[in-house]
Hints:
The chain has 263 residues and is mostly beta strands. The protein has helices spanning 2-10, 12-17, and strands at residues 61-70, 75-84, 88-97, 105-114, 117-124, 127-134, 140-149, 158-168, 172-183, 193-203, 206-216, 230-239, 243-249, 255-262.
Amino acid sequence: MQIITIILLSLTGFTALASDTRNTNLIAVGQGISSPTSTSTINYSSGYTSESPLGTIYQNGFRLTAEYDKTDSTEAYGGEIGYGQGEWGIAAGQHKTDCSGCKATSAAALGLNISDIGVGIRFAEDIYGVGFLFNPRGTHRLGIMVEANSTAGNGKDVTSYGVGYSYVETNYTLTLDASKRSFEDKSVDDDRMQLTPGIMLRADMFQISVNDKITLNKDKSNSAQNDKDSVLWLGLGIGGDKFHLAIYSDYVAELALAGSVFF
């Protein structure tokens, strides 16, 4: 959290120069629970839950997105198509890692805003989620996400929960999202929680997102879970109502790209 505070103070001049923008959700911030992105809603997410399906309502008309992400050893490709017009939106996508025997994953999402209460559903093969977003067009936004995953078979179901808050102004967004998993298999430690404070700054056609993904309550005795306590990930966006390119470092992979066109 201290890192985010320092960056916010150092970039005060940047926000002072920023101008008005209609779309506050072009790049990812936090875990996508209280401020889901409109450009990679289906295939990309950084928490234990998927991004909220309410990201679909922020699309400007029809959207086509091509995605690429890589680590040192793997590459992956994805694509999304969607339509949104403020009060409702829908999107679908597919993502595949370029490796022998790897299967493509497909998912779809639908979001609906009714009297400043957003309700959305997300569905894939044996993975189902529901999201709520209160005041999705306002300054104070509260998000809730619940997702059930039964892909591992009988007795191996995983339920993920997420909650978040975003403070959204014209030129910046402050976000704090948290998510947790509950395993049906009680031999698996399920005390871990991911906490992601983040900030997004916007100026004309440019957006910057800085986030700290913090893992709490890790089981130190399990070497498979002995990953980093804190990971700083960054996002850079260029574009607006007609086209957009999002570039991420250490978000879903070491490098991730999402190029979108709106029409």
